[in-house]
Specification:
This protein is mainly beta and 506 residues long. It has one domain. The protein is 5% helix and 40% strand. The longest helix is centred in the N-terminal third of the chain and has 9 residues. InterPro entries: Carotenoid_Oase. Its cofactor is Fe(2+). Belongs to the carotenoid oxygenase family.
């Protein structure tokens, strides 16, 4: 299908491609819940694109006008874009968590947020209140016939995949205990050696204490936990994401320190009590997936840095190769600071790095793959834990410096070739989700690459400041031409993660 370009020449975009005040408008609550067919479309939706894109993110950034201090503290809102025969339907619903319902009923903030939100009344109202509000705002995934909204510090919420109505907390037939966390970055192994070659879902949780414990869960196609093992690790853990290979789970233990006293005293949130330690190395924890081995984590070290997200890992010649988004440091979250006033020029950008961990020598080599400011990496789902060639990312429009994400970036890690699709100066881009063009397997998953690795589409939500609305954008993954722009009737607050299933839910 012939695509259309947003700009004929890069010169049509100003040197500084973004306007801070315009970018800030994406951080507004969307309080209405919608359900409608998308009728305003530029280009054409590919007729081969059938299934549902689910996206999650903080949709509520204030409670009755009382502002949430940090977007990561906002209540989760699920968007579903269902594609069928060249048409698309949009629906959004808030995850009706216990905390969400309570705060909507009272019209005020009742819980402290992890990243800065405090209850009204100063430190006296917040002291020794360590309750955690399950905000279910980070990822959403359809697995084992269940749609799950995930947040890394608590249990998943199960949703109706057609209506997005909240069914309740999910405990996987009692295998997950009440209050136990279930992280927001699961991986689907397309061919698990522990499941006769069938796919399985791999996830983890962190239990904090004087040291911490990593729990690893593996779920079969029916959504049942079939493997669960725990591994104590010394030190404090700030681990948001991980990676898998056929044999290992890999975690980066970022060098941070946590002082709980200001949090307990009601003076700071938990996130404001975390400090980056540039004098300490980043540790790499390598844990065998086979619980029968009962192996302790292998701990390697690499120079100090901070990692939120991993693109993918694979095994090669006795090494584990891992591509990750790395930051020079973790900026401190200061009490009373306004995230909307971010000074991008004062912060180092996230960049794509490759790490090679030699299991025999215990050494780690690293290489910068992409210097452009980028985040939210995505690969072909059939290559999870296997060698990949392409990584797709949300990125800055400019090749250097730090800035909001206004472009989709494709990096060929074999040749170093790069392609970009920029929506600057008026568009701000979410995570690009790669959808293969080929048919899914009988399990309803993409378990093998059919044809070229980049034969498919990238789907992203782009906030258009001129229209003050969001678009669902479909981009050809081969040449990054825009195939279609689906104009929504409203904006979607900047989100976090999403997933695509070939199952059609409308």
């Amino acid at each position: 299908m012939q695509g259309f370009q947003l700009f004929e020449h890069a010169a049509t975009v100003p040197t500084r491609s973004y306007n801070t005040e315009e970018w800030q408008r994406g951080y507004r609550s969307l309080k209405e819940e919608h359900s409608y067919w998308i009728e305003e479309i530029e280009g054409e939706i590919p007729t081969e694109l059938n299934g549902t894109l689910f996206r999650n993110g903080p949709g509520l950034l204030d409670i009755n006008g009382e502002r949430i201090q940090h977007p990561f503290d906002g209540d989760g809102m699920i968007s579903a874009i269902a594609f069928h025969n060249g048409r698309a339907h949009y629906r959004n619903r808030f995850v009706k968590t216990e905390g969400y319902l309570a705060e909507q009923k009272t019209g005020k903030i009742l819980y402290r947020g992890v990243f800065g939100t405090q209850k009204a009344g100063g430190w006296l109202a917040n002291a020794f209140d360590t309750r955690i509000k399950n905000i279910a705002n980070t990822q959403v995934l359809y697995w084992g016939g269940k749609l799950l909204a995930l947040w890394e510090a608590a249990e998943p919420h199960r949703l109706d995949p057609k209506t997005l109505e909240t069914i309740g907390l999910e405990y996987f037939d009692g295998e997950l205990s009440k209050g136990a966390p279930f992280a927001a970055h699961p991986w689907i192994d397309p061919s698990s050696q522990f499941d006769q070659g069938n796919p399985c879902l791999v996830n983890f949780s962190i239990k904090a204490g004087l040291s911490f414990t990593i729990s690893i869960y593996e779920l079969d196609l029916d959504g049942k936990i079939v493997r669960h093992h725990e591994h104590p690790v010394p030190g404090f853990a700030f681990i948001h994401d991980f990676a898998i290979t056929p044999n290992y789970c890999i975690f980066f233990q970022n060098p941070v320190a946590f002082n709980p006293l200001p949090f307990l005293a009601g003076l700071r949130s938990a996130g404001e009590c975390i400090k980056f330690r540039p004098d300490q190395p980043t540790k790499v924890l390598i844990i065998p997936r086979d619980p029968a081995l009962k192996a302790k984590p292998k701990i390697l070290e690499t120079p100090s840095g901070f990692v939120f997200h991993h693109a993918n890992a694979f095994e090669q010649d006795g090494e584990i190769v891992l591509d990750s988004i790395c930051y020079e440091s973790l900026p401190s979250v200061e009490p009373g600071s306004d995230y909307r006033e971010t000074d991008f020029d004062a912060l180092a950008p996230g960049q794509l790095w490759r790490f090679r961990m030699n299991l025999e020598s215990g050494t780690v080599d690293r290489q910068l793959l992409e210097p452009r400011c980028c985040e939210f990496p995505f690969i072909h789902p059939a290559l999870a834990g296997r060698q990949h060639r392409y990584v797709y990312l949300a990125a800055a429009h400019a090749e250097s410096g730090n800035a909001p994400h206004q472009a989709i970036l494709k990096v060929d890690v074999e040749t170093g070739e790069r392609q970009t699709c920029s929506f600057a100066p008026d568009g701000y881009v979410s995570e690009p989700v790669f959808v293969p063009r080929g048919k899914a397997s009988e399990s309803g998953l993409y378990t093998e690459v059919q044809g070229a690795e980049d034969d498919g589409w990238l789907i992203a939500v782009v906030f258009d400041v001129k229209r003050d609305r969001s678009d669902v954008v479909i981009v050809d993954a081969k040449d990054l031409s825009v195939v279609a722009k689906l104009h929504l009737k409203h904006h979607i607050p900047y989100g976090l993660h999403g997933s695509f299933t070939p199952h059609y839910f409308e």
